[in-house]
C-alpha cells in the first residue's frame, strides 16, 4: 500500500490541498469543522507529514541528530532517553544514530544528518580523528568529548571522578589497584587522575586499554586475560559494564569481593544500579548532562553567531556498595 499523501488527506476531508496544509501547519484562521475533518482524515489514512520537505519551506526541520557509540550500553541508552525528553519539551524531535563504535559509520551519520537538514547535532562518541566535525555547517554540541574550540563540550568532572575512585580503593586497603579503560590517551582525565593518586601514595599505576572498537566478547576476553596475568587487589573500571566483567572474572576464578578484589565502576546509570545495586561506582549526572547539552544546542541554533564558551564540568559523586 502506498504511503498516503497530502492530496489524499485533502480529498478525504473534502478541502483543498492548501487548506489541508494550513491545518497541519496551524496557519491562519480555519473553522473548527474544517480542522476536525482534516484531523479525522489524517487519523483514518495514517498520514505522516514529510518533515524534511516541510523544512525546505521553513528552513527549520525541528529535528536534532544524536550520535552515540552504542545504545546497548546502559549509559548511552539513558543519555539518549534524557536528550529526547529535553528536546521534546522544546518542540524538537530526535534522530538517534548508533555508530557501533566505528569512525566510518560516524562519518556517514554526520553526512546523513547534514544532508537531511537537521537543525543541530549532539554527539557523544569517542572515535578519534573523525574529520567531519571540522567541516560541519550546523550547530554541534559534544558530550564528554573535546572536538575543538568552536564546539562546546558538556561533561562531568572526570578528573574528580578518577580521584574519588582511586582514593576510595586505596582507603579500603588496595595497594595494587589497576585501571581498565577503553582508550588510554593524554585527554583521558580519569586515567590521569588514577596515575596521579597512585603516584602520590607511592604505588605503581597500571592501565589496561581494551580498545574502543572492541565488541563485548572481545572486551571481556581481553579483560579476563589481562587480570589473570596481572595480579591486583583492586579494579577501577572506566564504566560499569567493565566493572561487572571484572566482578564476573572474580567469581569465575574464586576471588572474594571485596576481600580479595575491590571493584569501583563509573557512570551509575539507573539500569545498572537496578541490576546490581551493590556496585560501588562514580555516578555521573546523566540527566543533567543531557539537559544541559540540549540547552546549549538550542541556544546555538537560535543564535549561530554567539561566541563559544566551554562548559564547566558537572559534579560527580561516589556511590558506595559492597564491591569495595
Please give a structural write-up.
This is LacI family sucrose operon transcriptional repressor. It comes from Microbacterium trichothecenolyticum. Keywords: DNA-binding, Repressor, Transcription, Transcription regulation. InterPro entries: HTH_LacI (IPR000843), LacI/GalR-like_sensor (IPR046335), Lambda_DNA-bd_dom_sf (IPR010982), Peripla_BP_I (IPR028082). It holds the Pfam family Peripla_BP_3. The chain is an alpha/beta fold. It folds into 3 domains: about 5-50, 434 Repressor (Amino-terminal Domain) (Orthogonal Bundle); about 60-155 and about 285-315, Response regulator (Rossmann fold), CATH 3.40.50.2300; about 160-285, Rossmann fold (3-Layer(aba) Sandwich), CATH 3.40.50. The chain is built from 12 helices and 11 strands. The chain has helices at about 5-15, 15-25, 30-45, 50-60, 75-90, 105-115, 160-170, 190-200, 215-230, 240-250, 270-275, 285-300, and strands spanning about 65-70, 95-100, 120-125, 140-145, 155, 175-180, 205-210, 235, 260-265, 280-285, 315-320. It has a 6-stranded mixed sheet with strand order 7-6-8-9-10-11, with helices on both faces. Strands 2-1-3-4-5 form a 5-stranded parallel sheet, with helices on both faces. Helix 10 (about 240-250) links the parallel strand 8 and strand 9 (about 260-265). Helix 1 packs across helix 3 (about 30-45), helix 5 crosses helix 12 (about 285-300) and helix 9 (about 215-230) crosses helix 10 (about 240-250). The chain is elongated. Mean pLDDT is about 90; it is low at about 55-60.
Amino acid at each position: 500500500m502506498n504511503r498516503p499523501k497530502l492530496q489524499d488527506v485533502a480529498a478525504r476531508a473534502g478541502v483543498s490541498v492548501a487548506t489541508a496544509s494550513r491545518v497541519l501547519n496551524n496557519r491562519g484562521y480555519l473553522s473548527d469543522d474544517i480542522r476536525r475533518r482534516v484531523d479525522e482524515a489524517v487519523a483514518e489514512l495514517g498520514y505522516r507529514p514529510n518533515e524534511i520537505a516541510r523544512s525546505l519551506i521553513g528552513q527549520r526541520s525541528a529535528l536534532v541528530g544524536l550520535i552515540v557509540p552504542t545504545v546497548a550500553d546502559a549509559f548511552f541508552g539513558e543519555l539518549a532517553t534524557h536528550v529526547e525528553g529535553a528536546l521534546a519539551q522544546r518542540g524538537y524531535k530526535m534522530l538517534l544514530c548508533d555508530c557501533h563504535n566505528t569512525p566510518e559509520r560516524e562519518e556517514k551519520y554526520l553526512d546523513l544528518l547534514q544532508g537531511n537538514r537537521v537543525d543541530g547535532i549532539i554527539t557523544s562518541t569517542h572515535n578519534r580523528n573523525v574529520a567531519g566535525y571540522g567541516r560541519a555547517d550546523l550547530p554541534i554540541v559534544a558530550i564528554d568529548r573535546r572536538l575543538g574550540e568552536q564546539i562546546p563540550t558538556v561533561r562531568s568532572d572526570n578528573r574528580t571522578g578518577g580521584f574519588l575512585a582511586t582514593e576510595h580503593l586505596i582507603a579500603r586497603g588496595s595497594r595494587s589497584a589497576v585501571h581498565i579503560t577503553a582508550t588510554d590517551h593524554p585527554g583521558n582525565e580519569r586515567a590521569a587522575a588514577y596515575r596521579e593518586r597512585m603516584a602520590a601514595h607511592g604505588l605503581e599505576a597500571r592501565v589496561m586499554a581494551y580498545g574502543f572498537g572492541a565488541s563485548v566478547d572481545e572486551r571481556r576476553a581481553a579483560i579476563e586475560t589481562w587480570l589473570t596475568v596481572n595480579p591486583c587487589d583492586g579494579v577501577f573500571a572506566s564504566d560499569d559494564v567493565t566493572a561487572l566483567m571484572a566482578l564476573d572474572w572474580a567469581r569465575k576464578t574464586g576471588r572474594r569481593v571485596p576481600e580479595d578484589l575491590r571493584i569501583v565502576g563509573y557512570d551509575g546509570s539507573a539500569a545498572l544500579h537496578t541490576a546490581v545495586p551493590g556496585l560501588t561506582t562514580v555516578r555521573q549526572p546523566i540527566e543533567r548532562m543531557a539537559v544541559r547539552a540540549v540547552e546549549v544546542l538550542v541556544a546555538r541554533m537560535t543564535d549561530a553567531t554567539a561566541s563559544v564558551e566551554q562548559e564547566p564540568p558537572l559534579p560527580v559523586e561516589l556511590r558506595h556498595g559492597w564491591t569495595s
